[in-house]
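To close the section, here is one more complete example, presented without commentary so you can practise reading it yourself. The ligand is NAX.
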Amino acid sequence: MARKKVSVAITGAAGNIGYALLPRLASGEIFGPDTEVELRLLEITPALPALEGTVMEMNDCAFPLLTNIVVTDDANVAFDGINWGLLVGAKPRGKGMLRGDLILGNGPIFTGQGAALNRADSDARVLVVGNPANTNALIAMNHSDLANDRFAALTRLDENRAKSQLAAKAGVPVTAVTNMTIWGNHSATQYPDAENAMINGQPVFDVISDHDWLRSEFITKVQKRGAEIIQARGKSSAMSAANAALDHVMSFEARTPTGDWFSAAVPSDGSYGIEEGLMFSFPVRSTGRGNYSIVQDLNISDFAQEKINATEAELKEEKATVAGAGLL
Ligand code: NAX
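Output:
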């Protein structure tokens, strides 16, 4: 059932992804044409003047459904009463910076924001986009009183990238590709699973005869797509990242079509032997309004298991890093 009003917080709203997110949230496209939207925008203090410029533009769009915009550098204000929190803001990875440094640099942002999320509506949903997204979501979840299953990290961009690659290879529209799972971390260890995906209801391995491509190039292409885009654009993915974040919200708000699923990093309940509590990307189905379950009993080949083990090992290592720094 559609709400008549929805309040959405976006952190890092003055950034690139924020710029691509805001107009689509306010247009009515995401929550429906009869739902009013309030936007609560959080930025660090030095970015507030730039954010004011974006707000001027939002006002100049004269969106009929946009009732209110709050601009703040205080997470307690930003998250007050929200239904959705899109946690995009994080420090970018600098040149030569190791992933471990990024984890420790961004972790503290999510301890404070996790605690501030206690001010959200008790039924709120939180999506972490800022990298390292899985582990930042783990930190926020651990510092919040909201139920654990309200927290997720974005792997929908990876899912969309995988679908696009498979559709191009098979020469079919992207809508023909379903049941696409991204397992694990939003990083180069993620495993995009073509073995359980379908094209027009047929197993991908029956439709695409180039199995070597499916087992090698396809996987690395999806794993390294972010880097490829940075190389070409000189900036990281923003339009496609915002689009994926909105796909994630819409997928959690709606009942998943029968037989299909989508990917999101959610707290592991031990499914597929993944350590409980790790923020791990699984195939999930939504019952609508944010409630979901992890799809069970998918076939995991030895090839897939090896990849899943590798991405789980990376997430355990990230967890140990933030636990060691007192961030959990
Ligand atoms: P930008 O650098 O353009 O914007 C980030 C914004 O966050 C800046 O305006 C900055 O002032 C703000 N910020 C920093 N610390 C903050 C804090 N404590 N509270 C509130 N705001 C804060 O980056 P953008 O391209 O928008 O990317 C944002 C994040 O998304 C990055 O961490 C990026 O790595 C991550 N991504 C995640 C993806 C995913 O699929 N999970 C894909 C795209 C993207 O790479």
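Once you have examined the tokens, check your reading against these statements. The mean pLDDT is 96. The domain at 156-318 is CATH 3.90.110.10 (L-2-Hydroxyisocaproate Dehydrogenase; Chain A, domain 2).
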